[in-house]
TrEMBL record:
The keyword Lipid biosynthesis applies. PANTHER family: ACETYL-COENZYME A CARBOXYLASE CARBOXYL TRANSFERASE SUBUNIT ALPHA (PTHR42853), ACETYL-COENZYME A CARBOXYLASE CARBOXYL TRANSFERASE SUBUNIT ALPHA, CHLOROPLASTIC (PTHR42853:SF3). Component of the acetyl coenzyme A carboxylase (ACC) complex. First, biotin carboxylase catalyzes the carboxylation of biotin on its carrier protein (BCCP) and then the CO(2) group is transferred by the carboxyltransferase to acetyl-CoA to form malonyl-CoA. This is Acetyl-coenzyme A carboxylase carboxyl transferase subunit alpha. The keyword Nucleotide-binding applies. It catalyses: N(6)-carboxybiotinyl-L-lysyl-[protein] + acetyl-CoA = N(6)-biotinyl-L-lysyl-[protein] + malonyl-CoA. One of its GO terms (molecular function) is ATP binding. Pathway: Lipid metabolism; malonyl-CoA biosynthesis; malonyl-CoA from acetyl-CoA: step 1/1. Residues 38-292 form the CoA carboxyltransferase C-terminal domain. It comes from Neoroseomonas eburnea. Acetyl-CoA carboxylase is a heterohexamer composed of biotin carboxyl carrier protein (AccB), biotin carboxylase (AccC) and two subunits each of ACCase subunit alpha (AccA) and ACCase subunit beta (AccD). Keywords: ATP-binding, Cytoplasm, Fatty acid biosynthesis, Fatty acid metabolism, Ligase, Lipid biosynthesis, Lipid metabolism, Nucleotide-binding, Transferase.
Length: 318
């Protein structure tokens, strides 16, 4: 069954009526095609008007939609001959961060992603996309591997943030994130990062210190979650919608602030309504952005990447 968000309830009611009429047709052979067509047009119009005026908090809900395609879906569809590589060569393998080598449209690449999982079992397995230190150390290892072999890096980010548990702090969470960011900034190869859902805090930046940062239309990217921000500022998580507005976390906001380089449109109603189309559109955009970067040498890439992030600081937006 399709999952509907709270603000989509009127749409859910219309689509429910359409499904009931279809079942009536199947059971009794009654021709209700005209009525179904009218309801479908009405549902589409309501969907279009709803998504034309989403608030930042509603966009955050869309970014977290359980049916939204995840990192493994993008890797499966876009990367041929993918070979996963495990472990940080120091402590363990963190399944919240997936990575390996493969081919993107014929070109050998290193791929990274934060994977949330799509059912209870897989979400627990991937720790809901919240990486521990060993996940960021694995990412650092793979970025360095990419540099050694001259392979472009593609990352797909979808995380609420790094795992906040005591054991993660004890194993050096902050240092691991910082080293992963450093590896991204220093990589002598093209690096394209995409925020495919939620990009939260340093846990997202660790895999997104890239030459080009892409966001899907309804993705969000911020220093803290709206709920976390509301809890700190107002001591009330119910103020999350107010916090979302203040954080400027939507793709449109971040593009205007020059913090991301490109925004990829999603199908009407969000990526979860047409995962294949979303993935294909993102693949085209990545290919377009990657083409000029592969012509540059490592020193030029590092210098431009450094200047890109320094300019964010000079402009006062971070």
């Amino acid at each position: 069954m399709r999952h509907f968000l709270d603000f989509e309830k009127p749409i859910a009611e219309l689509e429910g009526k359409i499904e009931e009429l279809r079942r009536t047709t199947d059971a009794g052979g009654i021709d209700v095609a005209d009525e179904v067509g009218k309801l479908r047009d009405k549902a589409q119009a309501l969907l279009r008007s709803t998504y034309a005026k989403l608030t930042p908090w509603q966009k955050a809900q869309v970014a977290r939609h359980p049916d939204r395609p995840h990192a493994n879906d993008y890797i499966t569809a876009l990367i041929e001959d993918f070979t996963p590589l495990a472990g940080d060569r120091a402590y363990a393998d963190d399944l919240a961060v997936v990575g390996g080598m493969g081919r993107f449209r014929g070109r050998a690449v290193v791929v990274l992603g934060t994977e949330r999982g799509n059912d209870t079992e897989s979400r627990v397995k991937h720790n809901f996309g919240m990486a521990r230190p060993e996940g960021y150390r694995k990412a650092k290892r793979l970025m360095e591997l990419a540099g050694r072999f001259g392979l472009p890096i593609l990352s797909f980010v979808d995380t609420a943030g790094a795992f906040p548990g005591i054991e993660a702090e004890a194993r050096g969470q902050a240092e691991a994130i910082a080293r992963s960011i450093e590896a991204g900034l220093e990589a002598p190869v093209p690096f394209i990062a995409t925020i495919i859902g939620e990009g939260g805090s340093g846990g997202a930046i660790a895999l997104a210190a890239a030459d080009r940062i892409v966001m899907l239309e309804h993705a969000i990217y911020s220093v803290i979650s709206p709920e976390g921000c509301a809890s700190i500022l107002w001591r009330d998580a119910a103020q999350a919608s107010t916090a979302a507005e203040a954080l400027k976390l939507t793709a449109d906001d971040l593009r205007r602030l020059n913090l991301v380089d490109a925004v990829v449109a999603e199908p009407l109603g969000g990526a979860h309504r047409d995962p294949e189309g979303t993935i294909a559109a993102l693949g085209d955009r990545i290919a377009e952005l990657l083409a000029p970067l592969v012509e540059l040498d490592g020193a030029t890439l590092r210098a431009r990447r450094r200047e890109k992030f320094l300019e964010m600081g000079r402009s006062g937006v971070i």
